[in-house]
Amino acid sequence: MTTTHLPDPDELDTLRQRYSLERERRVRPDGARQYRPAEADFGYYAADPYVDGVAGREPLKDTVDVAVVGGGFGGILAGARMRQQGVGRVRIVEKGGDFGGTWYWNRYPGIHCDIESHVYLPMLDETGYVPEWKYAPGEEIRRHAVRIAEKYDLYPDALFSTAVTSLTWDEATETWIVATDRGDRFHATYVVTSTGTMSEPKLPGIPGIESFRGHTFHTSRWDYSYTGGTPGGGLSGLKGKRVGIVGTGATGVQVIPMLAEDAEHVYVFQRTPSSVDVRDNRRTTAEDVGADREGWAHERRENFLRIVSGEPAVRDLVADGWTASAALLEKLLPSFRRAQEGPSFEAEYEVADAVKMNELRARVERSVDDAATAEKLKPWYRYACKRPTFSDKYYAAFNRDNVSLVDTADTHGIERITEHGAVVGDRTYELDCLIFATGFSVGVSGILSGKLPVHGRGGTQLLHAWAQQGPRTLHGFTGNGFPNLIHMGSLHNASSVNFTHVLDEQAVHAAALVAAAEAGRAVVEPSPEAEDAWLAVLAKGAADHEWFHAECTPGYYNREGLGRPNTASAFPHGAVAFHELLRRWREESIAEVLRPRTAVETN
Ligand code: NAP
């Protein structure tokens, strides 16, 4: 039996110093401004490679019951839950050529979800589908999105390869006018927005990036016409090619072993190593997960949410790296527990964190043959500083002769890109292909960035209404002055690593709001007092994570090292409590947001 070594105070102090040093090596004064969006001259990086031209169609001027902005899991679930409530015409408007959102765009080789498929895939009870793998490949997940859309008949009214460009409340008809980039201008009684929080690919602003003459693309727009193969591998187009990849986050960790199989040489440009835990993917049967029982998926999903939210649970049904490390996922633990337990919690937490990170660094040493390479791959920060990743193939890739790790920590990334390659220090790496696994602009929905203008009652623009004191909502869904507009995503609510679960709870709530309004011939609109009360709930007990993130290596968790403001933007008691609060509110208080319709009904 092995015993866990608990670090003593001196060891903890040494670790703190090392973490601080590694942070200082990486913090850049330009913070998040170091990135550039994949638009304008860089629009090529965001173009849809999965549609073969966009067929023309007549602009729509009709009226539907519900318009949903975004056809990822959030939008599809909103549509499905609306159907369950008997809503007639639901029109989902989606930029991509089909449903799927993240799973439509991301089709890179090796793509899998590292949240267990039996809790990640929504509506398994309703569709009767049982995933075949503990961690499903991306294509299985994309197909499941399509499965739900088909089951709930969401295709006939859907608009693909179409972006909503404005939402305007029409007082006379009490409907929203939805305008799109295809010339549509249709009416919808309700609008649900589910535009995702990580949908805009971003590129590093490396000098000279535009001058590269080789082939280049972002992982979320994988160019199989160049690489050959499929998400399962066989990238025959890379034979004889020198491939550079920038980024070693959750995406890079999945892609790099696949590139290594086919490219002549792979240069991995790393700035900060990920923590890479055991994955242990395997085939599963219906018996393995108890799928013969009614409600099995719901039960499993709730169990996972309880554990990763730091709530007590009798059993751990999923039993994987996430649930094992749940106590370390500081940002997920409800802050009221931290407040109650105070300094003793923080001290125990730091020890547990050091044990976990020591274990992960030991895994690198065990797995990577070359000691110098292993040293560079070790993550020197606390567990919750960066998104944890999971792979049983990643480290082995660095034992191959055709894979080189290029550490760019001291130069803050690649210094310069030339026509033929990438410059780091005194060396130019000549490349045929340069792939960016550099992630997405985080937390920027079109509504909050102003890209999607929304005009409510009296023509008031939503961003103006929120400019003074920040967003104002009830439960994150609805706002005064913007009737029948329902937001989904991560505004003023509680989140979880299993984001599809969060979205499904939101979809149920959105559909209940619409059903109640229809039954009461009402519009949905909270009073300013209800918004004030909700903002007070968010402010009371808001977690002080600032100190923690201020000590972390830079990344999107801490605005590239600048720290995390605005902690009062989330419900402080965690997702389990939030879902329970919503359930009770629907049963007891939903009428408080219903106001009589005033428009004359024409049918
Ligand atoms: P990401 O987590 O934002 O990682 C971006 C990577 O690019 C980081 O390693 C970053 O290094 C690196 N980078 C950025 N600029 C650089 C530069 N100038 N030079 C060198 N390196 C640079 O993006 P991602 O891996 O695509 O993940 C995006 C999101 O998708 C994450 O939330 C992730 O959890 C999610 N995801 C989930 C799964 C799943 O299985 N569920 C799979 C893949 C992705 P630094 O760390 O130094 O900034």
List the helices and strands and how they pair.
Elements lengths: L8 H18 L8 E3 L25 E7 L3 H12 L5 E4 L8 H4 L11 H4 L3 H4 L10 H14 L12 E7 L4 E6 L4 E9 L6 E5 L10 E4 L5 H4 L14 E5 L3 H13 L2 E6 L5 E2 L18 H13 L12 H4 L10 H33 L3 H7 L11 E2 L3 H4 L5 E5 L8 E2 L3 E4 L2 E4 L2 E4 L3 E2 L4 H4 L4 E2 L6 H4 L19 E3 L11 H21 L2 E3 L3 H12 L6 H5 L23 H15 L5 E3 L7
Parallel strand pairs: 2-3, 2-6, 4-19, 6-20, 8-17, 9-10, 9-17, 10-13, 11-12
Antiparallel strand pairs: 1-7, 4-5, 5-6, 7-18, 14-15, 15-16, 21-22
Helix pairs in contact: 2-6, 2-16, 11-12, 16-19
This protein binds NADP nicotinamide-adenine-dinucleotide phosphate.
Structure description:
- The chain is globular, with a radius of gyration of 24 Å.
- It is 32% helix and 15% strand.
- It starts with 8 loop residues before the first helix and ends in a 7-residue tail after the last strand.
- It has a domain at 63-200 and 442-539 and 573-596: FAD/NAD(P)-binding domain (3-Layer(bba) Sandwich), CATH 3.50.50.60.
- The mean pLDDT is 92.
- The protein is α/β, with parallel strands linked by helices.
- The chain binds NADP nicotinamide-adenine-dinucleotide phosphate.
- NADP nicotinamide-adenine-dinucleotide phosphate is lined by residues 26, 112-115, 198, 204, 206, 246-252, 269, 271-272, 387, 408, 413-414, 437-440, 555-556.
- The site of NADP nicotinamide-adenine-dinucleotide phosphate (NAP) has 28 residues, from helix 8.
